[in-house]
Amino acid sequence: MNGLYALLSPSAVKALLRPGFVGGLMSITSAALAAEIQFNTDILDLNDRTNIDLSQFSRSGFILPGVYPMTVQVNAQHLPEQRVEFLPPDDDLKGSAACLTPELLDQFGLKEEKLAQLTWWKTAKCLDLSSLPGLEVSGDLSTSTLHVSLPQAYLQYTAQNWDPPSRWDEGVPGLLVDYNLTAQSIHQDDSDSRMGLSGNGTVGANAGPWRLRADWQGRVDNDSTRRTQNLEWSRFYAYRALPALQARLTVGENYLYSDVFDSFRFTGVALTSDDSQLPPNLRGYAPEVVGVAKTNAKVIISQQGRVLYETLVAAGPFRIQDLNDAVTGTLDVRVEEQDGSVHTFKVDSASIPYLTRPGTVRYKLASGRPSALHGGNEGDFFGTGEFSWGISNGWSLYGGALGDNSYRALSLGLGRDLLAFGAVSLDATRASTQLQDETLSGASYRLSYSKSFAEYDSQITFAGYRFSEKNYMSMSEYLDARHYGGPVGGSKSLYTATFNKQFRDAGVSVFLNYSNQSYWDRPDQKRWNLSLARYFNVGAIKNVSFSLNMFRTQERDQPSSDGVYLSLSLPLGRTGSLSTSANRSQNKNSYSARFSDRLNDRTHYQLSASNTSVGGYLSHTGDLSDVDLTVGLEEDNYTSFSLSARGGATVTANGGALHRSSSMGGTRLMVDTQGVPGVPVRGYGSPTRTNAYGKAVIADISSYYRTGASVDLENLPKNVEATQSVTQLTLTEGAIGYRSLDVIAGEKAMAVLRMPDGKAPPFGATVKNARQQDTGIVNDGGSVYLSGIQPGDQMIVSWGADEQCTLTLPASLPTDGLSSELKLLCQTGTAKNAVAPPPTVGTPDDMEKKNS
To answer: Is the pLDDT of residue 382 over 70?
Structure first.
């Protein structure tokens, strides 16, 4: 009824608001929901009470039979937009009910036993609502929403921001190109300039559930003496999700992602249980990389020669936490400083205890031929398989086998949920290797522990120990031995631990990371990093922070690299901070002061000065790419400049757009505002605006999570309004989602409509544009407030459930804007055939004289 009240004249509204007068407006029969509402039109301040069409308001919640685009909301969770048909029920030919088709029911996520109980009407086209007791369905045209309420016991398992597979969206076919480029120029006073360009990225195509991907990486270095360049395709592969198996099928060049065996590169096929398809609380652990940069630096994270991550970081401590949780094994970290120095270290991504939900089995199968990134095939055809079985609430049994013609490995382990004491797992692997004329056989044992102490604000992310006998060889060590023609120093033991602790009352947080890798015939590798942070107030100054970072890295026969970093930071204004720090690294001391602040919500910067150098760091989140810029100058040493850009391009049959992106080849959502440019769209991270064709892409969306995108209503351009501003969906891995949001662009003005015979359309008639968007409702005397006015466009006027006439907007709008009322002729006939004389414009006084 709110839409009707908006049409009444001021005198009628005052009458409606008198106490006790609402009862005079309408009489409702005893069957309140089904009966028709009888309007008392005598109270309406209208010149012609015989020319009224209020049929759409005559029943509470009544929707005329027809097909409507609607967002379906099941128990407050939004499904993708559907075309919902409303039909008159057999027992109420004057009513209407939503037709829930079998295709729509599939997205509800009903349990199998409930699906078997369903009955249908309209020749099995629509659900018989009585077959699901407790089901309630209602439509709301004002928000284009179909509300569905169901007992939760009918539905499959759901979690916050996670939907069952029946609601997953495979996206639309399309092409994508993602890139991450870094350019550097370093001029050292005692040598010539060095310039370099490096990068990596992904080229891909989507077709149905299949994702085709090709990863590339390259580097060009140029100085006065030589020029080196390298550009290579590091992987060609295709994959798809198999929701029925909660698994992922991959074909092509791949890496063995195993919870039991070491990782290596191969070409073949793999079928693995996909943890990312599980609810969030059952997913795996993603490794993180921590360190300290002496200057503004470039950090490159790679594995077996393949670049996984590359970024610019500001001087000081850094912590990279957005690596993929599928990454396993040893990671190589390379930190390239602006002064030309380089230091490297390794990170071992140990696994958390291997536990599986009771009654379920997780598995991983793979077969193919090992292959090196910079060479051909390295080994014979192999096969591997592993499993984990949830025996009960507390116990899990897991194991696996791996082998080829000359290598055999068998593993078996047991995991135990210790409830309040965390989780632990223990496994043993036995391997036998035929290497030339020698047979080596040995065992490896692994113990893992994980515990979150919520009551103490602390967490042991993982603690692991692994011991391998001297003659034990992993598959990757076996492949190295084949390549180099003899045994390669095998691993002896590995300790790993990560610990977090919050002392909230004291404002202190602690982070500790430790790893120790020893070998039978090589020096040990050790690395630890300790971070302490203290937050406190000093008088009127709030949130002062003090931090301490200590680290040590020892790589094989290289001298150990020790460092201590102290920092004190004072907040300035709303977003700025001033900090001073002392750093000791590689037996050198340095002192610096830094000022950081935001230019706006998208851009922040840092200026630094030390006893020997000055530098700057700028980071900008753009609509087309993310850009980082660093500059540095050290007296009598070097001058440097670095620039990085991360972004991508996505093209579908519905259009294309450039966009920012940090996850190469990842999941993304294209939002279409139906040709309206400059519309701010919110998703993950900062808002982005639609391009000249009304398209925007939100990248870096989490796969299998419920994702929302919305129009930023507070920052809409002038003369743009969104009648549908929110959409939600759950995309499978690597999908290109597509959603269209209902946005109207154009001028707004009062208009007076007339039929060819001089009469006005009836009170309550609706006006829509060519895209069937509501642009106005006719008031008394044919007056209507129109939105979305575009020069030369046509709009359709409907009443009595039919399209009655078409009006043509002026080819050119008045130079003084639309402060005057438009006088428009509504010509009978279709929009294509309707011909009307040029509309005229009159003042409000002119229109009032004519109406009277």
So the answer is: yes
Q: What secondary structure does DSSP assign to 752-784, as a single string?
A: EEE-TTSPPPPBT-EEEETT--EEEE--GGGEE
Long-range contacts from 327-330, C-beta under 8 angstroms, 24+ separation:
327/257, 327/286, 327/287, 327/303, 328/257, 328/258, 328/259, 328/263, 329/262, 329/263, 329/303, 330/303
User: According to the model, what pLDDT value does residue 665 have?
Assistant: 92
> CA 525 to CA 23: how far, in whole Å?
85
Degrees (nearest 5) of the Cα angle 594, 600, 602?
Answer: 95
Query: What's the whole-number mean pLDDT along residues 257-266?
Result: 88
State how far the alpha carbon of 517 is from the alpha carbons of 212, 473, 521, 526, in Å.
37, 15, 12, 6
How far apart are the C-alpha atoms of 235 and 223, rounded to whole Å?
A: 30
Matching CATH number, 66-156, of 3.30.360.10, 3.40.50.150, 3.40.50.1820, 3.10.20.410: 3.10.20.410
The whole-angstrom separation of Cα 263 and Cα 284 is: 16
List, in sequence order, every residue forming a beta bridge with 493; answer none if it has no partner.
467, 518
Put simply, whether the predicted model's pTM sits higher than 0.90 gets the answer no
Give the single-character DSSP code of 379.
Answer: S
Q: How confident is the model at residue 5 (pLDDT cuts 50, 70, 90)?
A: very low
CB atoms within 10 A of CB 88: 12
For residue 680, give the amino acid letter: P
Do residues 561 and 552 touch, judged by C-beta distance below 8 A?
yes
- As given in the structure block, the two tokens for residue 313 are 């970081």
Give domain limits for the chain: 2-45, 66-156, 746-851
Q: Which CATH architecture has domain 746-851?
A: Sandwich (2.60)
Distances (CA, A) of 458 to 504, 527, 609, 760, 834: 11, 22, 36, 73, 72
